[in-house]
Design goal:
Blueprint lengths: L3 H8 L13 H6 L7 E4 L5 E5 L4 H14 L1
C-alpha cells in the first residue's frame, strides 16, 4: 500500500513528495471528508493550502507562488 502514493504521483507527473496516511493520522488532523486530500506545508510548518479535490494546476500554482516568495 505504501507504494501507491509514489505511483499516483508519478501517474500525474507530480514533482513534489507524496506520502501514504495508512493509519489516517494526518487525515484526522487536517482532512474533512474525502480522499485524496492534499495539504501543502511551507518551510515554517504552516499549512499554506489544503483541498479535497485534485486540481493539478491549482496545486502547481500554489507551489510556484510560494517558491517565488522564498
Amino acid at each position: 500500500m505504501a507504494e501507491q502514493a509514489p505511483a499516483w504521483s508519478s501517474q500525474h507527473h507530480l514533482t513534489y513528495p507524496a506520502t501514504m496516511d495508512s493509519e489516517g493520522e494526518i487525515f484526522r488532523k487536517y482532512g474533512n471528508g474525502s480522499v485524496p486530500y492534499h495539504v501543502l506545508i511551507d518551510r515554517d510548518f504552516k499549512i499554506i493550502h489544503a483541498e479535497e479535490n485534485f486540481q493539478k494546476e491549482l496545486l502547481i500554482g500554489t507551489i510556484n507562488n510560494i517558491l517565488r516568495k522564498d
